[in-house]
Amino acid sequence: MSRRGRTIRRIVLGVLVLAVVAVIGGYWYERPLLLTGTGYAAHNACAVRQIAGRDDPTADLPPNPLVPYLRDSTDGARTTGSLWGRLAIQKAWYTKGYGCTLADEAPDLGTATAVGVKDNPFSGAPTPTPRKAVTQALANAFGDDLPQDQRAALGTRAVVVAQHGKIVGERYADGFGPSTPQLGWSMSKSVANLLVGRLVLDEVLTVDDAKLRKDWKGDKAKITIDQLMRMSSGLSWDETYALATPVTTMLYREEDMGAYAAGLDMAHKPGTYQQYSSGSTNIICSVLHERTEVGADLPRQELFAKLGLSSAVWEPDASGTPVCSSYLWATPRDWLTIGQFALQGGQWADQQLLPEDWMAQSTEVVKVDKTEEPGYAASWWTNKDAAGKRISEILPREAYWAQGHDGQRLYVVPSADLVVVRLGFSPQVEPADLRADALVADLVAALPVTK
């Protein structure tokens, strides 16, 4: 080979080496971001298959440029998520009764308390023949009037309605039914409020408890359970669902989610600024975890077994703490049962399972100096701000609800003795276009209050 040829060869090899170094360096630089995506893929695939009993996990992946390159595979209790099947590998582990947990190794969560259906009025209840106006309300909620592509984007998968404690309307999308568990996402926060209420009744804690963590000093030590439920802790947060934001980092990269959120800096004085935060709810459940020492089984013992929520699965993180912000699965009818429990103020099967004034306090909006969510109370959304001003003109003033990512809703309307559940996958639908509020308004009009 000539000197010129050897020189060219060295240049080419040098360029290739630099390219390889750049690719490897770029991968390691972007790896934290990529792990968020593969963690989402692993957890989603595990839960959709193992909890929901479906084999189409990609149907629940959000629109994101990374999605076409994500891969997942399930082998027994382990589901692996990766990029192209090789990079940024994350593992989710299934445990019966507890669902799926992201961790390097299988977690030891113990044996889940068995939950029956004895005290659940909606389990096994017959599906009624609804009134014509109810049928029309459900048709609108499913987008029957829309072109097929818009109806698919609306993404309604289930609507179930109860009035006076009985199911009066029910409809499901193809592939879903009364026995298909669905993820509530942030509706879990409202159920976490009920779990706190159970433990307040049992005198495990009070909503005014402060000094919640040994590592909290200064202003952090002043944060109360009530402020965490009302999202006014003052802790720094960003609820944007994008790769590598605090909320997705917490959900898909942290083994102890409550500790991660608790370690963030203070941005405001406690009780002065309201900012929606999944981290706050996970701090609450880390406190419950420490106080009770029950672990992942706590919701099953304190709520699911009491209400007969046999389908309910509240997935924990690798520390064994339920992910109270986001990871509660249940069938539509069991979500309905949760709403009925709230409507009845914790009165259930001849027992008072919450403090008698719990729901009244939990749905009262407290004034703060500044808020991003004027109708948010103690982990429940309401239809009035702290001054009593009505927020939505089409919803009854006293209505309150649980609300979750991708279009999940659980409405309670005391004046109509009504509970409404709407579940779906609607990542590209704005809340105003979800038709959920309109569904409730239509049902209130269709169902006169008679007992």
From TrEMBL:
<keyword id="KW-0472">Membrane</keyword>
<dbReference type="Pfam" id="PF00144">
    <property type="entry name" value="Beta-lactamase"/>
</dbReference>
<feature type="transmembrane region" description="Helical">
    <location>
        <begin position="12"/>
        <end position="29"/>
    </location>
</feature>
<keyword id="KW-0812">Transmembrane</keyword>
<dbReference type="InterPro" id="IPR050789">
    <property type="entry name" value="Diverse_Enzym_Activities"/>
</dbReference>
<feature type="domain" description="Beta-lactamase-related">
    <location>
        <begin position="157"/>
        <end position="439"/>
    </location>
</feature>
<dbReference type="GO" id="GO:0016787">
    <property type="term" value="F:hydrolase activity"/>
</dbReference>
<dbReference type="InterPro" id="IPR001466">
    <property type="entry name" value="Beta-lactam-related"/>
</dbReference>
<dbReference type="InterPro" id="IPR012338">
    <property type="entry name" value="Beta-lactam/transpept-like"/>
</dbReference>
<keyword id="KW-0378">Hydrolase</keyword>
<keyword id="KW-1133">Transmembrane helix</keyword>
<protein>
    <submittedName>
        <fullName>Putative hydrolase transmembrane protein</fullName>
    </submittedName>
</protein>
